[in-house]
Amino acid sequence: MGAASLGKEKIMLSRKKRKLTFAAVATLAMACSPAYATTTTITIGVAANFSTTLNAIINSFSSYYSGTYTYKFVTVVDSTTNLKNAIISGAGAGPYDLFLSADFAAPQQLYTSYSSLVVGSPFQYATGSLVLWSGATNHVDISGGLPSPLTTNFVLADPTKAPYGKAASQVLSSAPWSIPTSTTYPSGYAQTRPNINTTYAAVKDGTFPYGFVAKSAVCTKPSTTEVWYDSTHTSHHEYLYNDAAHPYDQIKQYGVKVVKSRTADQETELTNFLNFLTGVGTTLGTAKIQYYCYQLP
């Protein structure tokens, strides 16, 4: 073979190597790009009062990580007690990766009595407040608080299932209504709905003229001032937990990580979300909590 032929073969081999190298780099770049990133999904069981806030946090979280990961979520919205019972029934198989309760008692019961079903101890993520609210439909001015004597039906969440309902029953146990907390609801004028979201809906659509709802359902705080939903056509009265006349157990909302089979990518998503929710590394998540008129721990 002549020198000219050898030279041509070397040039051709060199070009092939360059093409292979470029192809390998392109493949690697595509694999690492967001379009080819692994999509992972985790499931969150959330107390009804926090569902709107959670959706806002999830949207912010997904945007925050959009250039690195593709994260998705399944949310199950229910009363705290129903969510807790589902975890117990799951017996180590979930059904959630994370349980966001509306109280301390439910996650703590799982931690102390069903420790094999949770990972780590409960953590607080928010503090809520109780509001008596009347919507634009079938409106009654209740800005001065719950009437006495009671003359019309009103609604609260089931106290046996929903912490906000329990708080409302504690308010009702004080004077001048003096309805014992041992009362089985519905009772008299006090009617119930299964959770705080359905309670709010029953007031908003006019089924009841007023009822006890979560403050987060009717209040936002875009800056330093609270803004109440449609304040021109609605009315509200906030009951503070430490009001000497009508006290109730402060609504401290806790979460706990649930035992469930997870891939390494799902575990990473869950860890990242927990950090986002509790303000580790960024305050974008906690800002959403405050926006819906919750207090931070």
Characteristic terms for this protein:
alpha/beta, 297 residues, ModA, Molybdate ABC transporter substrate-binding protein, globular, 22% strand, D-Maltodextrin-Binding Protein, domain 2, metal ion binding
Q: Could you characterize what this model shows?
A:
With 297 residues, the protein is of the alpha/beta class. It has three domains: 8-34; 38-127 and 252-291, D-Maltodextrin-Binding Protein, domain 2, CATH 3.40.190; 130-239, 3-Layer(aba) Sandwich (D-Maltodextrin-Binding Protein, domain 2), CATH 3.40.190. The chain is built from eight helices and twelve strands. The protein has helices spanning 3-32, 51-64, 80-90, 105-113, 163-172, 196-204, 264-278, 284-291, and strands at residues 39-47, 70-78, 98-100, 118-128, 130-134, 154-157, 190-193, 211-214, 219-220, 227-228, 235-239, 251-258. The strands form four sheets. It has a five-stranded mixed beta sheet with strand order 2-1-3-12-4. A three-stranded antiparallel beta sheet has the order 8-5-11. A two-stranded parallel sheet has the order 6-7. A hairpin with a 6-residue loop joins strand 9 (219-220) and strand 10 (227-228). Helix 2 runs antiparallel to helix 8. It is globular. The model is unreliable at 16-36 (pLDDT under 50).
